[in-house]
Amino acid sequence: MPEIGIIIVTYNSGLEIGECLEAALRSGAEVVVVDNASSDHTIAEIARRGARLIANSDNRGFAAAVNQGFAVLKCEYILLLNPDSVLQTSLEPLREACDLTRAAGAGGCLIDAEGRPQIGFMVRQLPRARDLILEALVLNRVFPRNRENRKYRALDLDYTQRQTVGQPAGAFLMIRRAVWEELGGFDEGFRPLWFEDVDFCGRAADRGYVFYYAPKAVAKHTGAHSISSIRVELRQFYWYRNLLRYSARHYRTQVFRTICLAVVTGSIMRGSARALADWSLQPLVAFGSVARLAGRCFVFGWRDGAVSSDLRP
Q1: Would you state the pLDDT for residue 230?
Q2: Burial (CB count <10 Å: 0-12, 13-18, 19+), residue 54
Q3: Mean pLDDT score, 62-70
Q4: Domains of the chain
Q5: Burial 13-51, CB ≥16 within 10 A → b, else e
Q6: pLDDT tens column, 280-313
């Protein structure tokens, strides 16, 4: 049995999965694809290459699909690989980093189509409350070079060196099975996507584990192919909902409430600006849903059942 397994989660990934899967199969790792009810030709592309497939009848979300993949792979090291990520090198640098003292896992270097490292995405530090407040208030977008954002997005890191980091991107992340089992895998409440990998890295750090960045492991990454099929208003809602879920889990109550207020304020600002720019009330409706959710969380705290159905696809 191979030491390394690869999990690829697909959702309408027909245009990307072929090249990704072929490179993954060439690596010698054991590969499983978990499909979240794609409606395009994703399944046909997977079948054409003879890869092992778990085909879900509905979209269970990224976290749940990854947990399914871990359940069927028995390898000691498991790589999470996005379907728009194509391996360019051996996976050995990631495996070696996973064997370092107190390592929970390791991420590699993601490059774009021109070969440029995706700095700001492929590695970040675990978010502090102030980072999420600045994100919610849109200040990191308006002033992207501010000191706090540079630290959060690891813009000043020496990306030529292997080193410990807070949060490698889940698009290209190897995890030790022993740590995965100790932490109970991904929290499936983060659905359909966003913040499940951040939460896992945070829980690992709470137990004294570290993650490494290993620059000699490289994958070409396109990015954002699956979310393009999600309506813009739902993308906003899912992202903010999972930000609030993460905040409720990792910060004290008073800090969480401060983040809620920042989300309310930022949503009103963004909705108003977008409505004026588009000459439409639709942005106010979309961001209004986010503001209402954050307002309820401010008053009542995070309640899974109360926030799971505010918007539906």
Answers
A1: 65
A2: middle
A3: 97
A4: 4-119+157-221 (3.90.550.10), 130-153+231-313 (no CATH)
A5: bbebbbbbbebbbebebbbbbbbbebeebbbebbeeeeb
A6: 888 888 899 999 999 999 999 998 755 544 444 3
